[in-house]
Amino acid sequence: MSRIQLKQSPAASATASQDARIIVREAMRVTLASSPPPAEAEAAVEMKTTTAVEGVRVLCSEEVDGRRWRYVAEVDGSGRLRKGAAVRVVGLERRPEVPMDDLISFIRSYVVPEGFPDSVSPSYVPYMTWRALKHFFGGAMGVFTTQTLLNSVGVSRNRATPGAVAINWIIKDGAGRVGKMIFARQGKKFDYDLKQLRIAGDLLMELGAGVELATAAAPHLFLPLACAANVVKNVAAVTSTSTRTPIYKAFARGENIGDVTAKGECVGNIADLLGTGLSIMISKRNPSLVASFALLSCGYVFSSYKEVKSVVLHTLNRARFTVAVESFLQTGYVPSLKEGNSQENIFSLPWSKHTSIVLGSRFKDAFQEPTSFLALQPLFEKERYIVTYNPLKGNVYALLKDQAKADDILKAAFHAHVLLHFIRSSNGSRTLKDSGGFDHSASDGSLSTHLLPTTLDFQAHIAESCKTVANSYGMFKRKAAEQGWRMSESLLNPGRARLCSPQ
């Protein structure tokens, strides 16, 4: 079947040709005004001469960094593409340039990830702000500590030979590396107590800097003091390095963790250099060493605290799990990510023994007499854990059975918090009744020994907690998931003890 040829009227053909001339004329006018590169200008002139009669068809438009382009092809008198017609490009317009735009774009390429702010979480900006300020104070302190160490070792006063200076310095650095290797065995704690270790590491960094400054008062003790300071600072460096990646991972939206990490480290280095430069200028005026260190140290610690508090993590570790469960038991709601992170206690150390709840404890720590265990065993016959309260130690213990899986460990932790909540509520009521409104609970989170419930009391609390957990644990998990929380039993740091069937 032959193709049907549609003929255009002379008037339509003339109109199309006139429209094409208008498009080309306007395109050339804008192109010349925007001063395109010579090759583009020659292409545009050639198009104007070759399409003055026949016209062009606009294929598409394109924008690159504020510059707009139009791709066209030649057409014949009937409006169809000419055989063998080539695609031509015409620069249409250029966004007005501001002299500072290029500078701002250059700076952004070094300090923020590509696609910012959509490529990172909202907490990225406050975290990086406080991180930069912390590195600024750290860089400034580095000038004074280095100057003090050099003076103490005898470089500036020629009190030691170059060989002795080099040996002392090498021993100092070697001691620091040994401390770094020893502390690295705490690796798992960097995952479930990230913020707590991060703030502890920054405090250790300040302690190390203080010991370095102490060498100015006792230069004859340079080697032991410098070694101790370097061990402490290297331990702090391990903490900072180990907790850095999980924090940056919390900021990344998508597969841009490498970009976020690189830009974060760049911001820290820039701030460190600025602080170093300012401190060099200040040190030339011989300021008071103690006053300068005290001021910079306060700024460093405060910035470190705000930096850690600004981090919003999605995982529930022990501290955030406690916040979430207590809020759920008191209000029926699980806090949002931002609220849960802001309420987390970041000053509780992972190796602290003063804990109200022991997850995965030993049998001998939880039970002092066999009758208590035999009385509670029927309540947990269908569970893969046992939760109890030791009135002598004032702690709640969750014992895990050998069949316990991930969800069983999470449920045991939830049950332990429910039981602790009931016991504290009961003791709170008793305290208000007996002492006229004052709370005498222990400051470490455990219960006061003179307010401990009797054996019958805590067994009744345990039976009541079993009913509450059966009705509310599923609801707690659902509400936590709705808020964006991710639960993992490993982040709760359960003990390795497991109850086995008697042989």
- Output the strand order for the largest sheet: 1-2-3
Question: How large is the radius of gyration?
Answer: 35 Å
As residue ranges, the low-confidence spans are 1-16, 30-54, 429-452
- The number of distinct β-strands equals 8
Give a description of the structure.
By secondary structure, this protein is mainly alpha-helical. Helices cover 58% and strands 9% of the residues. It has a 3-stranded antiparallel sheet. It has a 3-stranded mixed sheet with strand order 5-7-6. Strands 4-8 form a two-stranded parallel ribbon. β6 and β7 form a beta hairpin. α1 packs antiparallel against α2, α7 runs antiparallel to α10 and α8 runs antiparallel to α9. The longest helix has 30 residues. The N terminus is likely disordered.
